[in-house]
Amino acid sequence: MPIRWIRSVKLALLMIISIPCLTGCWDRLEIEDRAVVLGISIDESKKLTQEENESQVIESAPKTDMVHVAVQIALPGRIPLGPSESGGANSGSQGTVWVIDVVGHSIDDALMNLQQQISGRLFFGHLRVIVVSEKVARKGLENVNDFFRRNSEVRRMAWLMITKDNARKLMTAAPKLERVPTLYLIATLDEGIRMGKFPKDYIGVFWSNSVKKGQEGFLPYVELRKEGNVEVSGLAIFKNSKMVGRTQPLDIGGYMGIKGSNPAGYRVFVNLGGAEKTVMATTTHREAKTKPSIKNGYPHFDISIMLEINVEEKISDAVMISDVEALKQVEKDEKKKALKVYSNTIKMTQAKGADIFGFGELIRAKKPSYWNSKIRTKERWQEMYKEKATFEFHVSVKARRVGMRAK
């Protein structure tokens, strides 16, 4: 009897342990039943359309401008999987994705209206790009940030970008090198990071910087060209959740230099005394260190930047790269131009009261007593950064390589 009782207990325990392992697929959802969202564009819409009557909003909606949302959904079995199927010169993007437009009072309302129009459940696990028009960004991204931040399916490695004109055009673009517009946008930004043309600024980084007391967020500012290609033409600068300005493309290099971001890939022409005595130098490496202090009662920052450059090209044989004086002149000219770019980038962000560099966070970390007694809030730092903060640059340039041929 004791042996039988022990066997029965063991069998019961084995069954109890096995039951949870048998319920692993209870909430499964077949991929054919999902509408996989690859990209979303958000524009302003002042026209009241039929979608407003189909809205799930109970009673009267707020009298605000509606949003026009375009969703790029992957078509099952149409996404290219190998080199033989890549390239969009013939078929374009219409054969691989389905772009649907919808209007709503908010992002959540618009996507709810969209869900009523398609059979599959919207799935944001593969969402890679969110494009917002400049008009919407200047009014504020509170609703955009709130919706996507609370959605557990949205990856923090996705890209959020601002475009000058209509954002929907980027959802329907047909680039020659890629059949899926969203993948082309991602490849453009990733290639910019690899070449040292743009810093890593995924949507998770933007959200993190935006909520800090001593820092503001920024996003890539992109423009669509005639052939369907996309150009990163600057940084969209934010103050709280509103876009307050944009930089020029060269200012991206200024930001990366002040932050010491690598790799470095910006080029500059150096005149050594005449139109034909011109060489092109490329920055290959940066090192930056910022030392905060309190000067005359206000924050002061000493920024030391070291640049390594390559002399890559010369216009004519009149330039003698092997000449030590010529290399010193190249270094001197590069230093002068770098100081100008860094200074102008700082002044531009100060004029907007938007500290995208995180100098306020340095004060919080290194000078906590000053922060707690004089600043304390994000709004107070915005004012102090704009009116009272001072900066001093110390730039050194070293030409490391001059190529295989010196003469």
UniProtKB/TrEMBL annotation:
GO BP of this protein: spore germination
Signal sequence residues: none
Coarse class of the protein's main subcellular location: membrane
Annotated keywords: Germination, Lipoprotein, Membrane, Palmitate, Signal
Source species, domain of life: Bacteria
Compartments in which it is found: Membrane
GO CC annotation: membrane
NCBIfam families: spore_ger_x_C
Stated name of the protein: Ger(X)C family spore germination protein
